[in-house]
Amino acid sequence: MRQLSRSVFAVLGLSLFVLATARAAGPAVGEKAPTFEAKDDSGKAWKSEDHVGKKVVVVYFFPADFTGGCTKQACGYRDDMQALADKDVEVVGVSGDKVETHEKFKKEHKLPFTLLSDEKGELAAKLGVPAKVEAATAKVKVDGKDVTIERGATIQRWTVVIGKDGKVAYKEAVKDPAGDAKKILEVVQKLKGA
3: buried, middle or exposed (CB in 10 Å: 19+, 13-18, 0-12)? Predict the structure, then answer.
C-alpha cells in the first residue's frame, strides 16, 4: 500500500510539473498574444491593448540595464530604430529593473523606445520567457558616477514579435545581443513579404 501511495504521489508530482511547465511556455508562434500591462521608464502604465493591432510590436527581454550584452542589444535597437519604424514596428524593451533604473539607462544611451519594468517577472511569464524572481543589486557608472541599481527579477534574453493581427509571429531566445535588432528587421520583412 505504501509503495502504491508513493507511485501515486510520483505520478501526481510529475503531472503537476508538466502542467506548470506548459503554463510557463506562454503562447506559441501563431497563437494570440495575451494582453499585458507594466510600468514604463517614466512610471506610467503601458498597456499592450493600446499598441497591439496598430503596429507590429517587438518585445525584447533582457537581464539587466547597464550590463555589456544588454547595452549592446539596446544600442542595436537604437541604431536600427529608423529602419524598424519604416516597417511600422514599435520596440519595447523589458527587464526586471526598477523604473528609475530604466530611466537612467534610457537617458545614458539615448534610447528612443520604451523600457518596461517587470520586477515580479509577470510579463515574462505571460509570454513564456524564463525569469528568476529574486532581488539583485549592482554597482554601475552613470554619468561618470558610481550608482547602485536594483532589480526584482532577472529575465532571460528572448525576443517576441507580435503581429498587427495580435498573434505571436516570432519568439526565440537571443544568442547574439548586438545583432538582435538586425535579425528582427529580417523577421519583420518576411512577415510583410518585403
Answer: exposed
